[in-house]
Structures are given as structure tokens and as C-alpha cells.
């Protein structure tokens, strides 16, 4: 299919796989079951990277790496706002990927100096294969062996995240994964006014490679769980409410429910206001 369509940066597939498995795990569905799947923030995809990190640090005596080992030893397997283990394992994976791909990128840059690895082209399969097969001819010559590369990636995590206030133990996932939902006009206004137009910058659970997709300025524009003919039991969550008028009492209505995954009814309640359009006389 890629020969016909090209590779424009297809998704890794971890999220789709987890959704499929969540669906297959149930014999039937009732209202709320699909919402439960949409709120699944389990880090199934990163579990193998947590194991790799623990294996890499098994015999270290470096104090900073021992701290990293301890903070990631208990794997809660969730991208929760208070998850330190998730953020550290995720950072390790990203750095391993950067270290593994560095010589390939450098080779291309010799011929095309402005080249950078496409943001949407994920080399996960290749990186994982290289890390486990460990071919000597494809190892960055900066490292004596593949274990040294993995240690360097872990050390990069401790050097960068550990140098921030509070150290590694304070590096929660919610610190970097927050809502960042801005009103389209906010950027044209002074900061003190823009603050009143934007949604609260909540810390969010979830990430890209799981059903509960969430990133700053990106995420589920709605969560819908409804069975045709049973709309009264349906659920609809929206991050910004139904009104785009900041002066409306309904501006941002439902945002907190969207943040916390609380089910809100699909159907409207009793009418509070009416808007009548009359032809000009």
C-alpha cells in the first residue's frame, strides 16, 4: 500500500492495537463501556521499554542511574498526571531512538545538509530490532558497544530531567502533558485578557500511543458513546463546550468533565433560553 499511497507518516499502530484488544476483551457492551475504552491510559506500548531500561541498569553503580532505576522499577503502566515512572521511561525511549538513528541522519546530512528526520516518520520497529540484534556495523562509532549506547541514553535522561527543580522524583507526566486549549482570538489579545478566553491549562492523563490520546493542544475533540435508539443513555464529552462566545454562561461548559472523564449526557436538558429568528418586515 505504501508503494501506491506513499508514506506520509502513518501512525505507529500501538493505539489501534490497544483499542482492538479492549474491544475484544468484552463479550458485550452497555452504556459507558466505550467511554471506558476511550479513557484507557494504560501504557501497554512502553512496557517493553521499561523492561529494557531495568535490564540496562541492572549492574550500574552510578548514583544518578541508580535513582533512575529505582523510580522506574515499579511500573504502574499508566500515563497518569502524577506518573514519574511513565515520563522517565518515555524519555529513555526517545533518547535511545535519537542515539540509534544519529549515524544514519549524519550520513544523509553529508549529502543533504538541511536534512532532518521527518517528525511523523516513526522508526520504532527498526530501532527496536537494532537494539536487540545489535549489529556492530550499524552502531554509532561513538560507543564501544550497544550497552554503552543504552547507558548513554539513560544518562542523558538523568542529566537533563534530574537537573530540574526537585530532581528526577519531581518529573511527573502532568508537568509536560497539559491541555493548552487556546481560543482562536487569544493570541491577538494581551496576556491578561487571553487568560480569560482559554480553557484551564489542566494536567492531562494519556498520550499518543494509547486510547486516551492527549498532548498539549491536541487530543479527543469529543468522546461519544451512544447506541442508536437509546440516545437517552448516550454520553458526549467535549473539551470546550458548545458555545464559542466567552460571554455565554455555557462557554467552556463540560470542560472539567472532559478532563476527568466524567460521563455527561448526549441529549440536552430542559431549554433555558430560546433564540427566535424573524424575517425582516
Short characterization:
By secondary structure, this protein is mostly helical.
Describe this structure as you would to a colleague.
By secondary structure, this protein is mainly alpha-helical. It has a domain at 41-175: Aminohydrolase, alpha-helical knob region (Penicillin amidase (Acylase) alpha subunit, N-terminal domain, Orthogonal Bundle), CATH 1.10.1400. The chain has 10 helices and 4 strands; from the N terminus they run αααααααααββββα. The protein has helices at residues 2-5, 14-24, 33-38, 47-56, 63-73, 84-109, 124-133, 146-161, 191-197, 255-260, and strands spanning 214-215, 218-219, 223-225, 235-237. A two-stranded antiparallel sheet has the order 1-2. The radius of gyration is 23 Å and the shape is elongated. The N and C termini lie far apart (60 Å).
Mean pLDDT: 92
Low-confidence stretches: none
Q: What would you give as the CATH superfamily of one domain? A: Aminohydrolase, alpha-helical knob region
Radius of gyration: 23 Å
Oligomerization category of the chains in this entry: single chain
Sequence of strands across the biggest β-sheet: 1-2
- Total beta strand runs: 4
Beta-strand percentage range = under 5%
Structural class: mainly alpha
Using the alpha-carbon principal axes, give the shape.
Answer: elongated
Q: Which series of helices and strands comes N to C?
A: HHHHHHHHHEEEEH
- What is the CATH third-level topology name of one domain? Penicillin amidase (Acylase) alpha subunit, N-terminal domain
| Helical segment count | 10
CATH class of one domain: Mainly Alpha
Straight-line distance between termini: 60 Å
What is the architecture of one domain at the second tier of CATH? Answer: Orthogonal Bundle
Largest sheet: 2 strands, antiparallel
Share in helix = 25-40%
Amino acid at each position: 500500500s505504501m508503494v501506491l499511497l506513499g508514506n506520509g507518516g502513518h501512525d505507529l499502530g500501538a493505539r489501534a492495537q490497544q483499542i482492538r484488544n479492549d474491544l475484544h476483551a468484552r463479550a458485550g457492551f452497555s452504556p459507558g463501556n466505550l467511554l471506558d475504552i476511550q479513557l484507557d491510559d494504560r501504557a501497554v506500548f512502553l512496557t517493553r521499554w521499561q523492561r529494557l531500561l531495568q535490564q540496562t541498569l541492572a549492574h550500574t553503580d552510578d548514583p544518578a542511574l541508580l535513582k533512575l532505576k529505582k523510580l522506574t522499577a515499579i511500573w504502574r503502566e499508566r500515563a497518569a498526571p502524577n506518573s514519574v515512572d511513565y515520563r522517565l521511561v518515555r524519555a529513555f525511549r526517545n533518547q535511545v531512538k535519537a542515539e540509534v538513528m544519529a549515524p544514519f541522519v549524519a550520513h544523509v546530512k553529508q549529502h543533504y545538509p538541511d536534512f532532518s528526520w521527518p517528525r511523523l516518520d516513526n522508526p520504532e520497529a527498526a530501532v527496536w530490532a537494532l537494539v536487540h540484534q545489535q549489529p556492530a556495523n550499524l552502531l554509532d562509532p561513538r560507543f564501544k558497544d550497544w550497552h554503552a549506547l543504552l547507558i548513554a541514553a539513560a544518562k542523558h535522561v538523568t542529566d537533563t530531567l534530574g537537573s530540574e527543580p526537585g530532581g528526577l522524583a519531581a518529573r511527573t507526566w502532568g508537568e509536560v502533558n497539559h491541555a493548552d486549549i487556546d481560543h482562536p482570538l487569544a493570541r491577538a489579545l494581551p496576556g491578561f485578557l487571553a487568560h480569560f478566553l482559554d480553557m484551564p491549562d489542566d494536567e492531562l492523563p494519556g498520550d499518543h500511543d494509547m486510547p486516551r490520546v492527549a498532548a498539549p493542544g491536541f487530543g479527543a475533540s469529543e468522546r461519544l458513546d451512544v447506541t442508536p435508539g437509546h440516545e437517552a443513555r448516550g454520553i458526549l464529552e467535549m473539551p470546550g463546550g458548545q458555545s464559542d462566545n466567552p460571554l455565554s454562561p455555557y462557554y467552556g461548559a463540560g470542560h472539567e468533565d472532559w478532563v476527568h472523564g466524567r460521563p455527561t449526557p448526549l441529549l440536552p436538558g430542559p431549554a433555558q433560553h430560546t433564540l427566535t429568528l424573524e424575517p425582516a418586515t
